[in-house]
Amino acid sequence: MAQASNSLTLQEIVDYLTDKGFDLVLRGDASQKIKRIERLSAAQTGDISFLSDEKYLKELTNSNASAILVQPKHADSCQNSAIILDNPYAAYAFVAQKLYAPLDVNGIHESAVVADSARISPKASIGANAVIGEGVVVSDLVVIGAGCVLESNVVLGKQTRLAPNVTIMQDCQIGEDCIVEAGSVIGGDGFGWAKHQGQWVKIPQIGRVIIGNHVSIGNNVTIDRGAIEDTVIEDNCIIDNLVHIAHNVKIGSGTAIAGQVGFAGSAVVGKNCTFAGQSGMVGHIELTDGVTIMGRGVATHSIHQSGVYSGFPAVPLAEWQKNAIYAKNLAKFSEKIKGLNQRLNLLEKQTKEA
Q1: How far apart are CA 277 and CA 287, in angstroms?
Q2: pLDDT tens per residue, range 233-260
């Protein structure tokens, strides 16, 4: 377990969660210091834990944690100090953010290369060997990791964090309170080519990537700049590792994208959609709000009805499940049809002989 960068009293945790909108009750010593988060069975003095799944209820009664995030219905089973609230799992996420927030050192590392025309907030942090191009805007409390490259006219909103070796290409914009993990490339050229006399001719990609607020982008994600119009990721999207988003794609707010998902050019995704691992979407089609594509499913046509879809091509889940059962029994069906054909041939022969 990694060591927390901060320590907090239970009262400070309660105040923080209250500010985040939780309705809660503290039972226990408000001055108790919390230094780590641990699972129920491993927690010791100074640790906080949580119960979000009833299968761990037995561990709740035996836990040595100094405090536990717990629902009201389980509070009586908790012998420890407790923060009692309806959603312990979400509360755990916020507490982890607070306890394990990176220790930032404002300022620019001496090895960073920063263009004279860049506007860098004095409250920002720029790591070793970062390169900041002409006209870049870096807002308050932005953290730029070691080895990052921001080409000309990039804009980063307040409290956005770039992990090491992130590349943001020219003219792209990222909103406030975003996270871009290591190795990701935002605004690389889209796959634009035209054929002329048997040769491929590259089409310059002159659009941008525009990313909203509160967007999380995983490791080694590639989001291509638009060919002419912009590629757009709206607010509150979460994107896992190894995702590819091609040029001119539009992703609606609140959408969740798991690892190894791919979007072809000019695909349009509605709000609050979900893409499970290794799913995808062909280009120049649209998904309405609230669509879920299950693992390895591929949307090959526009979908205008919210719901859960699976398969290739993606169809409503109930239909896909029915088809999967049929596919599983194809060999049996084949043998049965073969037997029926033999019987039919025999009957036809007997009829002709009669």
Answers
A1: 17
A2: 999 999 999 999 999 999 999 999 999 9
Q: Are 307 and 317 in contact (CB under 8 A)?
A: yes
- 301 annotated active-site: no
The residue type found at 8 is L
Distance CA 6, CA 116 (A): 35
Region for residue 80 given its phi and psi (left: phi exceeds 0; alpha: psi -120 to 50; beta: otherwise): beta
pLDDT of residue 342: 86
SS (H, E, C) the chain: CCCCCCCEEHHHHHHHHHHCCCCCEEECCCCCEECEECCCCCCCCCEEEECCCHHHHHHHHHCCCCEEEECHHHHHHCCCEEEECCCHHHHHHHHHHHHCCCCCCCEECCCCEECCCCEECCCCEECCCCEECCCCEECCCCEECCCCEECCCCEECCCCEECCCCEECCCCEECCCCEECCCCEEEECCCCEEEECCEEEECCCCCCEEECCCCEECCCCEEECCCCCCEEECCCCEECCCCEECCCCEECCCCEECCCCEECCCCEECCCCEECCCCEECCCCEECCCEEECCCCEECCCECCCEEEECCCCEEHHHHHHHHHHHHCHHHHHHHHHHHHHHHHHHHHHHHHC
Task: Give the Cα-Cα-Cα angle 142, 147, 150 (nearest 5 degrees).
Answer: 60
pLDDT digits (tens, 9 = 90+) for 124-158: 999 999 999 999 999 999 999 999 999 999 999 99
Which is catalytic among the residues 74, 196, 247, 284?
247
C-alpha closest to that of 156 among 175, 141, 143: 175
Q: Look at residue 3 and tell me whether its pLDDT is greater than 70.
A: no
What is the chain's mean pLDDT, rounded? 94
Q: Which of 11-20, 244-253, 319-328 has the lowest mean pLDDT?
A: 319-328
